[in-house]
């Protein structure tokens, strides 16, 4: 694929991530914090998010498997996940966490179990999307092209 | 955006989340601040303790420090997360405001939750701002006036300052973003002026004395509130 074509693909793909609600404006903020002195800032922070979240999802899974579920503890994990997903702009993960927390508050185990599946699903979907995005970027750079700036004004 | 003087501003950022520390560190560095990050309130106090004691041995006598005298050891502002295990951001704020050597340092609280009672409590306790997470460049731009003020106070105005300790006057200035996220985030430079989607609250309460410093009040963000009385005004958000 030639560079121009890859660049157009990246622009279209990024746009779709916003259109489908995977990303929100916070992701644009992350991009703005990346410069020559920190060329890999976005990838670094997003990778950190995935490491951190995998651990949180494991903790959540085991917390909900306990005989007597400690909903406060569950809520604390979800609170963390919600915070970090909103910090990187992973909007759908964040939204799933918001619903999850309302079930924690109600101490609704069934609701929490459903939400855990929902959050996991959104998380792996987001991971997949970010990986595609970063791979596209790397391919463009490897081909000697530059990354087109994200020009989305309505998010 | 950055001048030599401003680059000397030193911000201590406190957050238990590594992702958020990375984020706030970049946000502040890209705005030309010197940044120290710590992951808990107790580490923040530890850091402040060693620095402040070295730097300002007789803190109550308001030492005369000119900008060239601080060699990057002074903390000009503390920005802390609210919700942390152990010592919360609120606990840290209280400890700072209770300390005679630390209470001049402006404190800004960040929180992912828009809980009015929480915001009120923090402002009553002496926080300069309450910023909703995730923090954006536009929020970081709001920190500057608070740091400018302390710098100014430490300079030629100390005498007036001491007088003012007696005739306290408190001004609380707080801006709260509306949710959901706005459309102006791409225009960073303009966004600090763009307040169309921000709720602005200026709460002022003066304890009796309409003193000579009144004029300074008008300048937004330069309020002489280093020694604030607790205000009893009811804040509605």
UniProtKB/TrEMBL annotation, chain A:
The keyword Transmembrane belongs to this UniProt entry's keyword annotation: no
Primary location recorded for the protein, binned into one broad class: cytoplasm
Subcellular location: Cytoplasm, Cytosol; Nucleus
Sorted UniProt keywords: Acetylation, Cytokinin signaling pathway, Cytoplasm, Nucleus, Phosphoprotein, Two-component regulatory system
Keyword match Nucleus: yes
Residues bearing PTM Phosphohistidine: 79
Family matches, as Gene3D superfamilies: HPT domain
Domain of life: Eukaryota
GO cellular component, one term: nucleus
Domain HPt, chain residue ranges per copy: 38-137
Domain writeup: Histidine-containing phosphotransfer domain (HPt) contains an active histidine that mediates the phosphotransfer.
Protein name: Histidine-containing phosphotransfer protein
Protein species of origin: Eucalyptus globulus (Tasmanian blue gum)
From TrEMBL, chain B:
GO BP: cytokinin-activated signaling pathway; phosphorelay signal transduction system
Chain intervals for the UniProt region annotation (Disordered): 150-237
Keyword Phosphoprotein: yes
Database matches in CDD domains: REC_typeA_ARR
Residues recorded with modification 4-aspartylphosphate: 81
Low complexity: compositionally biased ranges: 190-207
Keyword GTP-binding: no
Residue ranges with Acidic residues bias: 158-168
Keyword line: Cytokinin signaling pathway, Nucleus, Phosphoprotein, Transcription, Transcription regulation, Two-component regulatory system
Domain Response regulatory: 10-148
Pfam families: Response_reg
InterPro entries, per the entry: ARR-like, CheY-like_superfamily, Sig_transdc_resp-reg_receiver
Physiological role: Functions as a response regulator involved in His-to-Asp phosphorelay signal transduction system. Phosphorylation of the Asp residue in the receiver domain activates the ability of the protein to promote the transcription of target genes. Type-A response regulators seem to act as negative regulators of the cytokinin signaling.
Protein family membership: Belongs to the ARR family. Type-A subfamily.
Name of the featured protein: Response regulatory domain-containing protein
């Amino acid at each position: 694929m030639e560079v121009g074509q890859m660049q157009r693909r990246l622009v279209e793909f990024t746009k779709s991530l916003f259109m489908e609600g995977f990303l929100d404006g916070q992701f644009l903020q992350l991009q703005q914090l990346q410069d020559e002195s920190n060329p890999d800032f976005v990838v670094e922070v997003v990778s950190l998010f995935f490491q951190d979240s995998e651990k949180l999802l494991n903790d959540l899974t085991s917390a909900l498997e306990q005989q007597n579920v400690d909903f406060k503890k569950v809520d604390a994990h979800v609170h963390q996940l919600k915070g970090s997903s909103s910090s990187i702009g992973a909007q759908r993960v964040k939204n799933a966490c918001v619903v999850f927390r309302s079930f924690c508050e109600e101490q609704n185990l069934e609701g929490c179990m459903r939400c855990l599946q929902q959050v996991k699903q959104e998380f792996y979907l987001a991971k997949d999307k970010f990986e595609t995005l970063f791979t596209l970027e790397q391919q463009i750079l490897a081909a000697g092209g530059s990354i087109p700036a994200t020009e989305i004004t309505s998010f | 955006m950055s001048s030599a003087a401003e680059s000397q501003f030193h911000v201590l950022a406190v957050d238990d989340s590594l992702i958020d520390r990375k984020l706030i560190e970049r946000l502040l560095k890209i705005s030309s601040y010197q940044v120290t990050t710590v992951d808990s309130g107790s580490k923040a106090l530890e850091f402040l303790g060693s620095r402040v004691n070295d730097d300002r041995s007789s803190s109550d006598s308001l030492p005369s420090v000119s900008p060239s005298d601080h060699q990057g050891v002074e903390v000009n502002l503390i920005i802390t997360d609210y919700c942390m295990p152990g010592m919360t951001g609120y606990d840290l704020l209280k400890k700072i405001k209770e300390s005679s050597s630390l209470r001049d340092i402006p404190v800004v609280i960040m929180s992912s939750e828009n809980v009015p009672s929480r915001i009120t409590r923090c402002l009553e306790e002496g926080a300069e701002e309450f910023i909703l997470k995730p923090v954006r460049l536009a929020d970081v731009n709001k920190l500057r006036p608070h740091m400018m003020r302390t710098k100014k106070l430490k300079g030629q105005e100390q005498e007036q300052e001491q007088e003012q300790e007696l005739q306290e006057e408190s001004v609380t200035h707080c801006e709260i973003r509306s949710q959901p996220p706005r459309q102006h985030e791409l225009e960073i430079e303009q966004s600090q002026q763009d307040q169309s989607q921000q709720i602005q609250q200026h709460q002022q309460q003066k304890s009796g004395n309409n003193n000579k410093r009144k004029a300074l009040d008008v300048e937004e963000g330069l309020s002489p509130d280093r020694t604030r009385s607790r205000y009893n005004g009811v804040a509605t958000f």
